[in-house]
């Protein structure tokens, strides 16, 4: 079952002479439970691709289907709800809400939907993330690794079908970075989630089931990672 | 888990529902339209009344002026006087009018202007109100219909999904109670599909396992048959018959191990086996795993050493099974190590995991084999004499602990096997959220 399918996706910025093609006719599909890494030099279109997958930016051409839903066929409002319920985001710079504590940050997607978080689940999740002593702390009181774990918790709280991570280990040392990737891999298996990680770290890419390589907006290779995968 | 509390259906929550929001907006709009219409009608009908009253006055003044002009002047002065009439004026005026039979009890139809005003106002207000309610009802019904339409489509799509196991054709992504209901239904259909997929996978797995077992048992069984037939014929000298018997014993041992291990894996992977996870010392588990492998290691003169920083580290585990997982990885390491080499078991604790590493200095595993070594019956050609079940069994056990088992080449030669075990496993199949 394909969770993500991308069809002839293109994105260009600007017009005429200043036109920049960030993505050129990219097509691929991702099965449920896959852990996919997207690699490429900076400016290769990785981030643009992630934004398109997450419904954050409208493509110039082409389609993105998530769970069989045409992402850009939805109205703006519907897409916002869809994004909140179906897609978890993890960013390089964590993007936690500075005035909310750990627990509140993790529950944020649920609170935005006016849902009552399941206390048992959230509590277990906080334990798994090793944040049980930090639950009332603000993001500014946490280390980078801890902040990224909070972000992972936030991405998992709704148990979205897909998790999109943009350079999740970019600001972390090797040790914390490894931990973040291991947590994501565990989540994929436990919750049948699909993870797409953008990275330039080849160690991270080596952990993935599949590696997509972008160059100048083109998908130049799509390979099963031969490495330390299970 | 509490699901619904009355307080959670309070007004604030009600207001967030887009359906209610629209309804309230519609009603407020209706009220404003009604006020505006009544206002306009009020002005208009007063204007009409004034007009007909003035007409009457003008006619009276006209007729008086033609006979008594001085009285007409007085009349006009009184008419444009905006002061309140005095009690005496009212009293004497009423008395005079009473003599002509004009009192307040007089029916309005004797006063044409009033009668006209009355019937006009009455009919306009009644028909206006009826029309207003009709229009309002139309909009309310249309509004309700849209929601009913959504619910109906959802029901039809759900029916299709249940019957044909397809994804929902009609979906709603919205705020409010209907949005949440739709979301729940959509999730349910996805889960259903997932579960059916899982069941099919289990079926395939069962088939595969049965095929594996029969394939793995056929060969040794066939050779056992031949040896036993030869032994029964009795034409063999005692030297050979002892050899045959030894071979038979070896094959039987192998078959026993094979069946037991396959059964274990099958039970683990089919979730038919309960792990009893308890907090227990990791050191004790590792030690007991090493003990079971000690004899095999000693035969090759291999030493297994433990290197750790935290002796008292405890882990949520089923120590019996985890020891078996570690022992199988160790066994694999011993089989792939040269004589008189060292195998190191080491672990570290991170905020989230315990990472247990088993490091050998053996021949290593070639890069192309790494992704496959945890598959059942996968054997790196030439190396070892296992059947390729030990590592898959270890992997299944580690996964039942909520962890991962990975292999990587050791930069100094050999292989590093890493068990990543979460200190607190991710919550298993949890209820999503409370509504």
TrEMBL record, chain A:
Residues 4-230 form the ABC transporter domain. PROSITE patterns: ABC_TRANSPORTER_1, ABC_TRANSPORTER_2. It holds the Pfam family ABC_tran. CDD domains: ABC_MJ0796_LolCDE_FtsE. One of its GO terms (cellular component) is plasma membrane. Keywords: ATP-binding, Nucleotide-binding, Transport. One of its GO terms (molecular function) is ATP binding. SUPFAM superfamilies: P-loop containing nucleoside triphosphate hydrolases. InterPro entries: AAA+_ATPase, ABC_transporter-like_ATP-bd, ABC_transporter-like_CS, ABC_transpr_LolD-like, MacB-like_ATP-bd, P-loop_NTPase. This is Putative ABC transport system ATP-binding protein. It comes from Cohnella lupini.
From TrEMBL, chain B:
GO terms for molecular function: ATP binding; phosphoprotein phosphatase activity; phosphorelay sensor kinase activity. Gene3D superfamilies: 1.10.287.130, Histidine kinase-like ATPase, C-terminal domain. It catalyses: ATP + protein L-histidine = ADP + protein N-phospho-L-histidine. It holds the Pfam family HATPase_c. GO terms for cellular component: plasma membrane. Its EC number is 2.7.13.3. Residues 212-425 form the Histidine kinase domain. It is an enzyme of class 2 (transferase). This is histidine kinase. It comes from Cohnella lupini. The lineage of its organism: Bacteria, Bacillati, Bacillota, Bacilli, Bacillales.
